[in-house]
Amino acid sequence: MPTNNEANKEAKQPLTQTTINIKPKIQPKYDVHRDVLSHDVVIKETGYGARDKSLPYALKQCWHNWSFAAMFTGIIPILQWLPTYSMKRDFLGDMIAGFTVAVMHIPHGMAYGLLAGVSPGSGLYMAIFPTLVYMIFGTSRHISIGTFAVASLMTLSVVQTYASEETELPTADKEIVTPIEVVTALALTVGLMHLLMSFLRLGTISALLSEPLVNGFTTGAACHVVVTQLKDAFGLQVPRHKGLFKIIYSLIYLCREILHTNLATLIFCLSIMAFMTICNELIKPYLRKKCRFPVPAELIAVIGGTIVSMVMEVEPHYDIQLVGPIPTGLPTPAIPRLSLIPNLIADSLAIAVVTYSIVMSLGLTFAKKHSYEIRPNQELFAMGIGNIVGGFFSCIPLACSLTRSLIQEQTGGVTQLASLVSAILIIMTLFWTGPFFRYLPRCVLAGVIIVALKPMFMQAKELKKFSKQGKLEVLTWLCTFIGVVLIDIGYGLVIGVCISLLNLYIKGLRPYSCLLGYIPEASAVYVDISNHRNAFEVPETKIFRYTGALNFATAISYRNALYKSLELDIGKTKRTVYVPVAQNGAILTNGSPQSHLNTSFRFLVLDFTTLSHIDMAGGQMLSDIMNELKKYGVRLFIASPADRVYDSLVHSMAFGGGPFEIFPTLHDAVEYANACRKA
């Protein structure tokens, strides 16, 4: 075994790894000469706790700082940016972006309206009413509100559960419930959920949906979307499946009926998919370097498919199913079927959380890029109002599309005024070209949807990145994906959330902890001795740092981590007597064969710099640790607690814990331990 001196010499050997030595041009120095302070002295000198925290004082301050104008513009963000809007600088970009996004809204709205189980017109209405509401109340300047595959798929699941079958007749006990009645009631309920979450200040709820969860969920949902489109791609009539394992039953039925495929429908669909793939993979990347406007492959496919359908009369000659009549003009406002709301609460909550997470993730991405602020609770408010208004105008629950949002930003969109331009163009489309699209084959929209899902399937590549983050991230992705694909969308989401919470709990029970040492050349600098070879332990003193919270859930793990770092096994130690022997600055331990406790230190400093919270159970655990170590001649100090942690320690001492010796900084505690050692 090497001696302490030999170990120190070995530690001072040059590092084999490459190091970067960056020195500032100016190296200021500071010298501090003062007495070692206890935390109580600092508390008295700084007047901690002297501020009035009573309810009357808080109400008085709130009234003093309250401003009607600030509150009004906070609720209606358009009043903040519209007065400073520059027609010369911003309007051209917004107009171009609005026109381009409108071109994408037409095929997206029709396709995702059908995907949701209602008419294509409902998808087009999504580009008008919720979009205009978000323009007024939303805080993101670049996202494109409207239809999205995942939201439409989750809506379809609800429609299949609660809407009546087409062949079902009304009875005395049961009324007929149409898909549009389910959809509008669902949109209203989702909007109410968003408003409730906004009033409860639950804007951070999206943090529960981790990146692996959202990634696995959307990839699994994409599989569902593809399966729902196969019946239109093959020209088959597939019965509606309710309950769990819908995707499995649908695939089994499709395999049984594959011999009855309408070849004309399949060829038409494959032709559209081939055209869109060539545009997306070859033509768009080439023209992107030469032209500001993207190639509207989806719109070209929809218009081209409609023209071919009209010229060749594909419905009577080839039995290809068409979209059918699309209402001309805007829908008449109608009150949703309120009796459905109690049955839709669970589904609406899931849709509310998922759509909000999608909107927030995209909004934060653009806000970071363009340096402006997104307010989470205001986003909930905007989505809530948008869904409630949409529920009166035959709309499905709103979301935002990554593709449309990127196009809106890349074509020069500066504000949500681009949404106004887009909505005006969609209204013109509904008034003048709506009857034209009645001849659009359903297989064309199926091909558009399937090709548009490619980015969602490509998310599976992220699994490699998650594997580098940890096994629990991979487990979250796999469990969510498998749950969504094999069981159901809602159950898959619940499974993913449970795994994510379990992930957080496990990481909370196993936080980062270490022993600290000092750097001889840098006074008052303490670093992890396991990572820094030139760091040394303070003689007769152990410094333990723990990152995280100390509460009822982590108290035992904190104690175990501490004793493991100190190489103690107090549970097996019956009686140990500390006999310090100084030799060349090193402390030798008692070598008695009946001693199981390493007593090479007399002082233990708990560094609370990175401790975020402590509760009564944590305070009691600290008292137990202090009393256990006191039996073996070890004195415990607490250093650098945050104010809220200090208050919890004082509260714990008031109920019989402690008493703890607390210092304002880690260096104060170490210097005090050195003084006690030399005394």
UniProtKB/TrEMBL annotation:
Sorted UniProt keywords: Membrane, Transmembrane, Transmembrane helix
GO biological process per UniProt: transmembrane transport
Membrane topology reported for the UniProt record: Multi-pass membrane protein
Keyword Acyltransferase: no
UniProt key word rRNA-binding: no
Membrane-crossing segments per the record: 63-82, 114-136, 143-162, 182-200, 265-283, 344-368, 380-402, 414-433, 439-457, 478-506
UniProt-annotated location(s): Membrane
Principal location: membrane
Domain STAS span(s) in chain numbering: 531-673
PROSITE patterns on file: STAS
Gene Ontology CC terms: membrane
InterPro entries, per the entry: SLC26A/SulP_dom, SLC26A/SulP_fam, STAS_dom, STAS_dom_sf
Protein name per its UniProtKB record: STAS domain-containing protein
Gene3D superfamilies with a match to the protein in the record: STAS domain
Source organism of this protein record: Glossina brevipalpis
